[in-house]
Every structure is written in C-alpha cells, then in structure tokens.
Amino acid sequence: MAKLSLVGAGPGDPELITLKAINVLKQADVILYDALVNEDLLNYAKPEAILRFVGKRYGCHSLSQQEINHLIVEYALSHGHVVRLKGGDPFVFGRAGEEIAAANAAGIEVAVIPGISSALAAAESQMIPLTSRGVTESFWVTTGTTLTGEISGDIDLAARSTATVIILMAMSRLEAIMEIFSKHGKRDLPVAIIQEATTGRDKMVMGTVKDIYYKAQHEGLANPAVIVVGEVVRLRNIAAEVQALIKKKNNEER
User: Fold this and answer.
1) Catalytic-role residue among 29, 34, 86, 204
2) Whole-model pTM?
3) 56 has catalytic annotation
4) Is 26 a catalytic residue?
C-alpha cells in the first residue's frame, strides 16, 4: 500500500529522535532524507530499503521541492512505504504541507511523526531557557527570510516585544536583522548564536545586538545555526557559573 510518513529526525544528536520515529524507519521501503539529518539514523533502515539523499540547504539545493514531491509519489506508488526524514520537526519550516498536498493528490496515505525542533533544542542544549518567570513569558520562532529572500516582517514585530526571539535560517542576514533590533532600542539586548546544536560539533558565540555580528564573523559562524535574542540569554552565564562551582566542589570531595 502506498504510504508517506513525514518523520522528524530531531536537531542533530541521533539520540534525540522519538521511539515511534525509529520504528517507522525500520518499516520504510524508501527513505528520502535531508541535509540536516544525522546519517547515523539510516542504520535503522532495513537492508533492502532504498536510501536517497534529497538534501536542501540555504545556498545549496540538491533537488527542488517539486522534484522531491515527484519522488515521493513515484516511490510510494512503486515501492510502498516512503519515509520523508526531515531535520528537526517536519512542520517547523519543513515544507511538509507541500509534500502532503502532493501525496493527497495522488491518493497516498499520509502519517506525521513529530520531532524535536532545533528552534527549541539549540537554546536548551546550551542551558538557555526560552521562558523564565520574571524575565520573559513568551517566545517567537521565526525564519530570517521570506520566499523572496527579503527579511521577514515578523522580525520587526518580534523586535518590539519583550519575548525571547528564536530566528532560524538567518545567518546571511544577521547584520540587517540586528539593525532592526537596534532601531527599537535593543542594542544591549543579549544574543546567542548556536551552530550545529547537539551534534558534538556545536559552537556558540554570545554577545549583544550591537556586537554579535562582528563576533560571529570573527568565529566564522555560518548555517546551520540558531539565533536567540532576549534577556534569557543572560541566564546561561549564571547557570554555567553555578555548574562550574558544583563540579569544582565535587572534584575536591573526591
């Protein structure tokens, strides 16, 4: 029976995938996987499964979305169960809606298995809370650019708020985005950029709206990276200092 499963692979660490997602990978006849998927997850596939890279990343597109949609339908009708394995969560900037529409048009059954989005996991992996009582009560998750390549208008709205702002796919427009925050009087607001979060190759730079662009340039940060803007970033330093003291005490007691 032709079937499409949209599966969230999580933020990068292969252990940050759900048990349900692993079980679906084991059943797949075909797995179409993205650039940000940890390839260790492909070890769950059965030996006869077809594994095909269809990676898409800003500035480096392997296949167009239309071509991917065509492959989904083609493989589902010819082989059966197709898993579309996406980094993070399929419904967070994953274009899952377009793939569901293609499957629906071809009469193909669709299932969705949520994943942990890097929008949440990147900050959490560095002990940065997205909300904290008395500091901020909400958070925004937004893309840096629109379909046309322009900066999203939601950035301007988010910059006016007191919420934590998480921005994805935005490193190419970092300087301009920080200028928007500066325009709203946020030059001293803390910022953290986490590159390749949870992968073991992760790298973080912290600063403020007024200097984070230069710090990121100096450290050579690039996509895939998550930008976190807000007062909660300060809490990371507090947590890190406390953890350092705890470790020092434990080492002395040993």
Assistant:
1) 34
2) 0.90
3) yes
4) no
Q: What is the pLDDT of residue 253?
A: 79
Task: Check if the beta carbon of residue 118 is closer than 8 Å to that of residue 88.
Answer: yes
Q: Which of 20, 56, 210, 215 is catalytic?
A: 56
pLDDT tens, position by position, 60-114: 556 889 999 999 999 999 999 999 999 999 999 989 999 999 999 999 999 999 9
Is the bond preceding residue 129 a cis peptide, omega within 30 degrees?
no
The active-site residue, picked from 169, 171, 178, 204, is 169
C-alpha radius of gyration, the chain, whole number: 20
Residue tagged 């937004």 (tokens): 142
Asked if pLDDT for residue 184 goes beyond 90, the answer is yes
Which helix (H) or strand (E) segment holds residue 194: the answer is strand 190-195
Confidence of residue 250 (pLDDT cuts 50, 70, 90): confident
**169: annotated active-site residue:** yes
Average pLDDT estimate for 19-25: 98
Give me the helix-helix angle, 96-105 and 65-79, nearest 10°: 40
Q: Which ranges constitute the DSSP H helices of 127-173?
A: 153-160
- Half-sphere exposure in the Cβ direction for 170 (13 Å, CA): 28
State how far the Cα of 89 lies from the Cα of 200, in Å rounded to an integer: 20
132 vs 91: CA distance, rounded Å: 26
